[in-house]
Design goal:
The chain is an alpha/beta fold and about 400 residues long. About 55% of the residues lie in helices and about 15% in strands. It starts with a strand and ends with a helix.
Length: about 400
């Protein structure tokens, strides 16, 4: 049987990529440092996915699964040597920690004289995550191994659109491997990044040029999701579905999507009606109560999510490039600067920096927005309105 290797046994790994591999006839090994998950995978050899329907869940069982200890470089190397296809879903901040074990796998394939290419789908929410991870891996390889890496290993960027939030407590208690997901299950990937024959993976859509899909995901889906979370937090909501049900927040998100869609249309020539339909569908998907997606989870890590090329700031800069005033997106950035849940060290750091050093200095240091720009002035104005606890409908005006 064909073998797939999934680096990361979290919600995306099990709830999205694992399902696609299983649907495509692969035996799947998951690498993770969470030994409770690894042991349970090896014990059960299967796990359930609960796909949300209108009033309940549809169960899908993924079988033929195994677990690999993420601290055992020897086991990881052997698993990579046997893999026909691979993916990562560990989180951008964890890529630096898996680079050395991944390099062990590259080295093992070279030592065994494996000529078949290994295509690795890099499921991380970061523009050019493939290049970033490649540089990390090569730091652990010698010159000959780097040459093998370049000729035999393909890092393929996807656009992860499926929402896979934390599993509800009652379901997790019944089976800690269970994952709840939305029905949306399409995986666009960079067609030009593959080496050799493109694997036949269900619901995988190879496309070129792929840059558009990366930015559509970040500047529409991720941007509006985060904006909804940040304003939802200000209004005291727990769940995304509660926040998007608030007419004022929905109006902000809708206008932000309209501005970003117009910018993407001008940048890539994609029909505006297609982008508008995609945006409308996003708003509907955010209403999904069964996902139980929390404001805190979606907004987490503002230090990364408000970075220059990421969701909100990246979308705002693209709008400005095309002469579009991204007012609602800038308001979302201001709301994000206030976001600081207990335990979210990244967000707390940024929020404290703003309080200590001011909005303008912090925007330059963390977001790459010039202090003398019109965007910075707008964000500062919105930040002040939020500080004064102005109602959202007044902010919209």
């Amino acid at each position: 049987m064909k073998k797939a290797l999934m680096y990361g046994a979290g919600n995306i790994g099990r709830g999205f990529i694992g399902q696609l591999f299983h649907m495509s006839g692969y035996e799947i090994s998951f690498i993770d440092v969470n030994m409770a998950v690894i042991d349970k995978l090896n014990e059960d050899g299967a796990y359930p996915i609960y796909i949300t329907e209108k009033d309940g869940y549809r169960e899908y069982i993924v079988t033929g699964v195994h677990g690999v200890n993420g601290r055992d470089n020897e086991a990881i190397a052997e698993a990579m040597a046997e893999a026909d296809i691979m993916a990562t879903a560990v989180g951008v901040n964890i890529l630096k920690f898996i680079a050395a074990p991944f390099a062990c796998g590259v080295r093992r394939r070279m030592e065994k004289g494996i000529e078949a290419p290994l295509n690795v789908i890099i499921c991380e929410n970061m523009i050019e995550a493939d290049k970033y991870f490649a540089n990390l891996v090569k730091e652990n390889l010698n010159e000959a191994e780097c040459q093998y890496f370049d000729s035999h290993i393909a890092l393929v960027e996807p656009s992860i659109g499926r929402m896979v939030p934390a599993t509800p407590k009652e379901i997790a208690e019944e089976n800690p491997l269970a994952v709840c997901v939305e029905p949306y299950c399409e995986l666009p990937v960079d067609k030009n990044a593959f080496k050799g024959e493109i694997p036949d993976i269900k619901n995988m859509v190879p496309f070129a040029p792929f840059d558009f899909f990366i930015r559509r995901k970040l500047f529409l889906h991720n941007m509006s999701h985060s904006l909804t979370a940040y304003f939802g937090a200000l209004c005291g909501y727990t769940y995304i579905w509660e926040a998007i049900s608030d007419a004022n927040i929905r109006a902000l998100a809708t206008q932000a999507l309209a501005d970003a869609s117009q910018a993407l249309h001008l940048e890539y020539g994609v029909p505006l009606d297609e982008l508008s339909a995609f945006s409308e569908n996003l708003i509907e998907r955010f209403h999904n109560k069964l996902l139980g997606d929390t404001v805190e989870r979606v907004g987490k890590d503002t230090k990364r999510k408000l970075a220059k090329n990421d969701r909100l700031v990246g979308a705002a800069l693209l709008c400005e490039k095309h002469g579009i005033q991204p007012t609602c997106i800038l308001a979302g950035i201001a709301a994000g600067l206030h976001f600081a849940p207990v335990g979210d060290d990244s967000s707390v750091e940024l929020a404290e920096a703003v309080k200590k050093n001011g909005v303008f200095s912090s925007l330059e240091a963390y977001c790459g927005i010039s202090a003398d720009s019109s965007a910075a002035k707008a964000i500062d104005s919105f930040y002040g309105m939020i500080n004064e606890k102005k109602p959202i409908n007044e902010i919209i005006k």
